[in-house]
Amino acid sequence: MDYILSGLKEAFRLLLSFDKETYTIIFLSLRISGTAVLLASCLGIPLGALVGLHRFPGRGVITTILNTCFSLPTVVVGLFLYLFLSHRGPLGMLGLLYTPTAMITAQTILATPIIAALSLVAVKGVDPAITKSAISLGATRIQTTLTILKEARVAILAALIAGFGRVITEIGAAMIVGGNIKGTTRVMSTAIALETGKGSFELALALGIILLATAFLINAGLYYLQRIRE
Amino acid sequence: MREYAIRTHNLSREYDGEVILKEINLQLERGRIHAIIGPSGVGKSVLLRLLNLLERPTSGEIYFDGKALKENNYLKLQRRMTLVFQKPALFNTSVYENVAYGLKVRRENRGSIAEKVEKALGIVGLKGYKHKRARDLSGGEKQRVAIARAMVLEPEILFLDEPTSDLDPRNVAIIEELIKYINREFKTTIVIATHNMFQARRLAHQASVLFEGRIIESGNAQEIFTNPQDKRILRFIEGKIIF
Ligand SMILES: Nc1ncnc2c1ncn2[C@@H]1O[C@H](COP(=O)(O)OP(=O)(O)OP(=O)(O)O)[C@@H](O)[C@H]1O
Ligand SMILES: [Mg+2]
């Protein structure tokens, strides 16, 4: 019990004293995961819309694969990416291993199928009469798709939240391709693992609380956004 | 020779092998109100979707102004007509955005869009509603927004699918007046699907009666009503068939 109380106290102390290392870690986490979610939405939303709105052979297979990716272990993604990026790997010459770019790549791979799968469900949930109305009012195919996405905006925002939740908390890939280097690739999840390993439970707990609080704030913001856009 | 706004030749539609519409031959004169009458489930909505090019027929042809369809002119043709659905499917946004939609996808300039939307809302009696959220409206108001959204495009052909089926008598009267007004003011060819013979008689110049997948009678609306050739229509008028 003591741990939890002193963990809370430590969390407040770190935040209120504007501890430089803590804030570096927080902002790095947000920057990496935010960028990854942004990239993943650029890929995942169109992919979800494409699969959700068109009938073609292989549609079921793609949907199943996307859904399977919900259970994709993050360490496996990390491992694969490591093999590609390590200096003997095919992309080794890029020198990306242990950089934020490598972490963003890993997290984009993790978030894209989640955002795609949930966007797919989102666009499928739009009343077909809406689609027909748009076409009947003279919309082109692209305009119709954009209209459907707009109608599904609340569910798509939920997809982004799920994607963000997946990557901000993940640790396996971040550890393997990021390397947990202080100041450049140490993020909240990897820092917690490190501090726990060192036995500094208070600091680890404090970081855990901060991670939760950050996620809470972001979700509160998105919820508010959802409310006004609804 | 005078060409029809729309003519169909042996238009048929099946769903999963089940024949819904069989060899429909329609001739719709320009600038008139046509009623498609028939009992529930007969295929009126399907027919309107075919004519509005939202679905493809299983067989048969549709001619617009006497010209057959070409794959590459669908969008152009589609933009000359529009369909108001049985259940008004409004976009989940403001009344203004709903009415402006068709103009925006045609990339009209903002000033002219604002002007046209304002005018259309005035005609349907919803002045001052433009900032309301469409989904907060009553059924009658929604239907009027759906009509405004179609009318604002000044289509050559306007399809109306049971525009008054769920409305109270006051809204029915408002919408029927509106339909006559649009036809008179803009010379719009109007095709209205209804299961209500009386409504057809109040509104339409011409009527076609659909029964069991076929058109059993077509012609002047008053004549069909007062002197139908097909005895099934007579039985309907006497109340023996529930349409
Ligand atoms: N997309 C579809 N797939 C399969 N069957 C369909 C489809 N659309 C319509 N049908 C069938 O076609 C028949 C005619 O339907 P339609 O909606 O055109 O009837 P309607 O004349 O408009 O009836 P109502 O007056 O109740 O609106 C119905 O039996 C319906 O089940
Ligand atoms: Mg119908």
Describe the protein's architecture and organization.
The complex is a heterodimer of chains A (230) and B (243). Chain A is mainly α. Chain A has one domain: MetI-like fold, CATH 1.10.3720.10. Helices cover 78% and strands 0% of the residues of chain A. Chain A contains eleven helices and no strands. In chain A, helix 8 packs antiparallel against helix 11. The longest helix of chain A has 34 residues, at 20-53. With 243 residues, chain B is of the alpha/beta class. Helix content of chain B is 37%, strand content 25%. In chain B, a hairpin with a 2-residue loop joins strand 10 and strand 11 (214-220). The model of chain B has no long low-confidence stretch (mean pLDDT 92). The A-B interface holds A 127, 129-130, 132-140, 143, 147, 150-151, 230 and B 49, 52, 54, 75, 78-79, 82-83, 85, 87, 89-93, 101-102, 105-106, 149-150, 153. The site of adenosine-5'-triphosphate has 13 residues of chain B, from helix 1. Residues 44-45, 86, 161-162 of chain B line the site of magnesium ion.
Parts with pLDDT < 50 across at least 5 consecutive residues of chain B = none
Fourth-level CATH superfamily of chain A: MetI-like
Strand content of chain A: under 5%
Low-confidence stretches of chain A: none
In summary, what is this structure?
The complex is a heterodimer of chains A (230) and B (243). Chain A is mainly α and 230 residues long. Chain A has eleven helices and no strands.
What key phrases describe this protein's structure?
heterodimer; A: 230 residues; mainly alpha; MetI-like fold; 11 helices; B: 243 residues; alpha/beta; Rossmann fold; 2 domains; 6-stranded mixed sheet; 5-stranded antiparallel sheet; 9 helices; 25% strand; globular; binds adenosine-5'-triphosphate; binds magnesium ion
